[in-house]
Amino acid sequence: MLQRLILGVGLLLSAETTQAALREAYARSGSDFINALLMSAVGLIGIFVVIGVIALMVTVLNKIGRKKDKKPKPPKDAA
Amino acid sequence: MNFFDSLAGIVQHWGTIPWNLWLMYAVMWIIGGTLIFLAIKKEMEPSLLLPMGFGTILVNIPLSGAIDETDGAIRILYDAGIANELFPLLLFIGIGAMIDFGPLLSNPKLMLFGAAAQFGIFFTFSMATLLRFPIADAASIAIIGAADGPTSIFVANTLHSQFTGAIIVAAYSYMALVPIIQPPVIRLLTTKKERMIHMKYTAASISKRTRILFPIFVTLIAGIVSPKAVALVGFLMFGNLLRECGVLDSLSETAQNALANIITIFLGITVAFNMQAEKFLRWQTLMILGLGLVAFIFDTAGGVLFAKLLNVFLPKGKKINPMIGAAGISAFPMSSRVVHKMALHEDKQNFILMQATGVNVSGQIASVLAGGIILNFFNV
Q1: Which of B145, B125, B135 is nearest to B298 (CA)?
Q2: CB burial of residue B130 (10 Å; 0-12, 13-18, 19+)
Q3: Considering CB atoms only, which of A33, A41, A48 is closest to B130?
């Protein structure tokens, strides 16, 4: 039964009319969808990278800021 | 020409308008009236929905002089401030001056939630292409998920979307509906135990140097990675620099109040240019409203699920309340308030407002970046 089903699907997919229809469907919407999918994946990764870099930068700025705060300021009239 | 000839001319003009166009105008008057009603009665984003509602009526009067080809006031304003994306950018100066990035700067890790909560934008982008929207329009529709009106206007206009009117209506309506949209999604994705997680907040002091350098560095980083976003991010950060520099208090105040208010008035009434019956009353408008909702739902889901993922790796006692992930949706400050309210509802001693606010402002930056990154993919 399963073999017949696979054979049937295979025959359907190999039929010229089916292939032409699939090609047309891809040309009409599939290519846009795949492009959008790829753009989305890259875009989401891109946001994480940029935000990650900004977060790292803020962490470094905070550390520098805290170190400067800890350093005691010498009194102006020490001399 | 005598009075009766003039009157006959006007009546003759009306007669040339087909009945179906009259019907479309009437529908637009109802839509305009609904926007005004929602603004006044329900207080849904009144500063924008009210001018927009009135503008909708103004541009949908037969032979409206407001959108006349040569001297229509709304057309002139549109060309001067929206066609060239100037108004949304100027509004960003005001928004930047209003935002206190303090809660975010004291806990920079929270920024990642802002990135995760942009998932809805990218999910909707793909879905919109599946529904046969041209790819540039699909990208413009997806930006509704930025939950940020000016970004939506900026991206839709830059990509010359034919659905700008519907996109703007969807963006502002859903922003106002955040308290209704987010809670069911959060409840669906979290357990009561997770919603009751307490998070310790230690208010770290942020040096003035950090506050000043932050907007400059963000502009530099975002500009290098995504040059198309530099105007968006740059104007937002310029406004914030006015606020944080400490020597331009009067300019900061002007940006927060006078400038933001003036631009909001012009922006609101001018975006109505896109609400002309022939442009707005299409079956795609309903699909755009649906896709906008999808974007908001998946933004919320993205933030919450990212927090849950992090919790898998975090030790006991340092777990994150996954609800704060939902605040990364950018709709500021509504989203953080919704999350805080939900936490208090579960446990009266659970105060997560500061963390949620930190995530919320990071969402503001991330949504602008998302707009810029999407624009980068298109040669515009």
Answers
A1: B145
A2: middle
A3: A33
What pLDDT, on the 0 to 100 scale, is given for residue A79?
47
Reported as a single tens digit per residue, the pLDDT across B265-287 is 998 888 888 888 888 888 888 89
Angle between helix axes B46-59 and B19-40 (nearest 10 degrees) is 160
Q: What is the residue whose two structure tokens read 């331009």?
A: B248
pLDDT digits (tens, 9 = 90+) for B186-212: 999 999 998 988 888 777 778 888 899
Q: Do B221 and A48 touch (CB under 8 A)?
A: no
How far, in Å, CA of B302 to CA of B296, rounded? 10
Distance, in Å, from the CA atom of B236 to the CA atom of B78, rounded to the nearest integer, reads 22
Q: Comparing C-alpha atoms, which of B248, B219, B313 is closest to residue B97?
A: B248
State the average pLDDT for chain A: 73
Counting one residue from chain A and one from chain B, the pairs whose CB atoms sit within 8 A come to 117
Which of B63, B98, B19, B23 is CA-nearest to residue B281? B23
Say yes or no for a CB contact (<8 Å) between A36 and B135. Answer: yes
Say how far apart CA B239 and CA B124 lie, in whole Å.
Answer: 30
Contact A32 B134 (CB under 8 A): yes
Neighbours of B245 (CB within 10 A): 15
State the distance between the two ends of chain A, measured CA to CA, in whole angstroms: 99
**Residue B301, min C-alpha distance to chain A (Å):** 15
Angle between helices B334-346 and B178-189 (to 10 degrees): 50
Cis ω for the linkage preceding A72 (within 30 of 0): no
Tell me the pLDDT tens digit for each residue of B321-335.
999 999 998 887 888
Picking from A38, A47, A62 by the largest number of B CB atoms within 10 A of its own CB, the best residue to mutate is A47
Confidence at A75, pLDDT banded by 50, 70, 90: low
Note the pLDDT of residue B279. 82
* Angstroms from A52 CA to nearest CA on chain B: 7
User: Is residue B306 scored above 90 in pLDDT?
Assistant: yes
DSSP per residue, B59-122: HTSTT-GGG-TTT-HHHHHIIIIITTSHHHHHHHHHHHHH---HHHHT-GGGHHHHHHTTHHHH
Q: DSSP character for A31?
A: H
Contact B343, B190 (CB under 8 A): no
On whether the CB atoms of residues B74 and B55 are closer than 8 A, the answer is yes
Query: What phi, psi does B119 have (nearest 5°)?
Result: -55, -40
B74 or A12: whose pLDDT is higher? B74
* Nearest residue to B271 via CA among B131, B82, B94, B96: B82
